[in-house]
Amino acid sequence: MSSRIEQLIDEIEEYIDSCKYQPLSNTKIIVNKEEIDELLRELRMKTPDEIKRYQKIISNKEAILNDARSKAEALINEATVHTNELINEHEIMQQAYAQANEVVTLASRQAQEILDNATIEANNMRSAAMQYTDEMLANLENMIAQTVNMTASHYESFINNLNGYAGIIRANRAELRPQEIEDLLGEEDAGGSEALNLDMLK
């Protein structure tokens, strides 16, 4: 079962894929700011909870090791009790010692195997949780960086377009009043020192 963060990342990717491209561009898209902000806001709210959940998984390592120690101690105690029972039987003293040593050796081996397996399992869980969290944060970082770049490019293109339109409008206004321009040029020729001020056309 996927986490809510994974679902949110999928939703953001699907939303970005569904956005329309800007005119005359196959890389820049038009993003609805409210929708992307809502998805990012929920992602920011869910991230701490997900990280806490994986921290809890990592902390379970100690619980696994403690359980393994308890089982190992129980095996050793059982072996010790059995050894004492065998030693108390005087008729089979030598056999009791041999069996006791065998039982203790077997119990110690089993206890060590339990500890080793528990340690390996706990380390694997910890590594998997850390790797998943790192991948999740890396995807989030890349997505935020892409969003920032797309937004910056969008506003830069918007400002450039506005400046272009302003230039066209200024030229059109000048064409609507050519006589005023000729009069101004005539005054400049007559005066010889007064420059044509195009700002008067605004």
Compact description:
Helix content is 83%, strand content 0%. The protein is mainly α. It has a single domain, classed as Helix Hairpins.
Keywords, separated by commas or semicolons:
mainly alpha, single chain, rod-shaped, 202 residues, Helix Hairpins
Assembly state (oligomeric): single chain
Order of helices and strands: HHHH
What is CATH's topology name?
Helix Hairpins
What is Rg?
39 Å
CATH class: Mainly Alpha
Structural shape: rod-shaped
Helix tally?
Answer: 4
Describe the protein.
By secondary structure, the protein is mainly alpha-helical. The chain has a single domain (4-201), classed as Helix Hairpins (Orthogonal Bundle). It contains four helices and no strands. It has helices at residues 4-18, 33-87, 93-176, 178-191. The longest helix has 84 residues, at 93-176. It is rod-shaped, with a radius of gyration of 39 Å. It starts with a helix and ends in an 11-residue tail after the last helix. Mean pLDDT is 77; it is low at 192-202.
Task: Give the secondary structure arrangement, pairings included.
Blueprint: H1 4-18, H2 33-87, H3 93-176, H4 178-191
Helix pairs in contact: 1-2, 2-3
